[in-house]
Amino acid sequence: MHDNLGMTMGMFIHDEVPTDEVERREKAVSALADSVRDLVDATIRTTVADDELAAVRAEVDGLVARLRTAQLPGPAGVRYNSEGRSWNWGNAVVGRGNAVAPPVDIVHDGFGSAYAEMTLGAAYEGPPGMVHGGVSALMLDQIMGETASGFRRLTMTGTLTLRYRRPLPLGPVRMEARIAHEEGRKITVEAQIGVRGEDAAVEATGLFLIPSWAPLAETEQGWSRSAEG
Ligand SMILES: CCCCCCCCCC(=O)SCCNC(=O)CCNC(=O)[C@H](O)C(C)(C)COP(=O)(O)OP(=O)(O)OC[C@H]1O[C@@H](n2cnc3c(N)ncnc32)[C@H](O)[C@@H]1OP(=O)(O)O
């Protein structure tokens, strides 16, 4: 097996957990991540006294120690069961268990087209009161990658070109992506992110590649997922 293939396909882990159990666990993990996200926002914005900060820190350290008593050996990866349910709770954008992720719910309205609406708060600040340019790129890369892949094939970002047209204020945002062109292993996706109903703040064009070492055809059911919508 090609090294890259081993590494990448290795992230798709067959985990024969029944779907109802995945869903129960997902709810529990999401609820904790929501609270941790709230903790991040509260940490950024708190003005409590230093001794209170130290006391809160001690409690947080205690909670971390409890979670560390049972851990995966590495990152969460993408898991799937033979019922076709997949879950990627660690993903930086859509990961339900990742407090660093907003998280984003991407809606696939047919193959080759997707949109998402989410709120980017204080944790995503770049210029004062504005979304960090790298965060916009991160959000766009995810929706564009998912659009290129449609959960039917493995695609990787080859080149991502961004045009920052106007600052994007923190708060509710919308992004959209669609496949513009496809030729062989190359898929061109266009996307944008901005305040809903206003002109785009950032426009993106990306070239996504089905890697030479990946199967060209639709991947075996398991790590793939049917396009939603
Ligand atoms: C499944 C669930 C969906 C999940 C969505 C997740 C969204 C997140 C998306 C990501 O963040 S992916 C992570 C960031 N990207 C990477 O880590 C990719 C790292 N690069 C690679 O693995 C390889 O370089 C790559 C797969 C992109 C290309 O390797 P290949 O061996 O397939 O390319 P090859 O050398 O065969 O070149 C094929 C063609 O593509 C062109 N090409 C290769 N790399 C390119 C590139 N980077 N940009 C533009 N064009 C590129 C190359 O010139 C050539 O053009 P021609 O056919 O016209 O000669």
From TrEMBL:
Keywords from the named record: Apoptosis, Cell membrane, Cell projection, Cytoplasm, Fatty acid metabolism, Hydrolase, Lipid metabolism, Membrane, Transit peptide
Q: Where in the cell is it found?
A: Cell projection, Ruffle membrane; Cytoplasm; Membrane
Membrane topology qualifier:
Peripheral membrane protein
- GO terms for MF: hydrolase activity
InterPro entries, alphabetized: HotDog_dom_sf (IPR029069), THEM4/THEM5_acyl-CoA_thioest (IPR052365), Thioestr_dom (IPR006683)
Boundaries of each Thioesterase domain copy? 129-193
Q: Which family does it belong to?
A: Belongs to the THEM4/THEM5 thioesterase family.
This protein is called what?
Acyl-coenzyme A thioesterase THEM4
Source organism per entry reads Nocardioides albidus
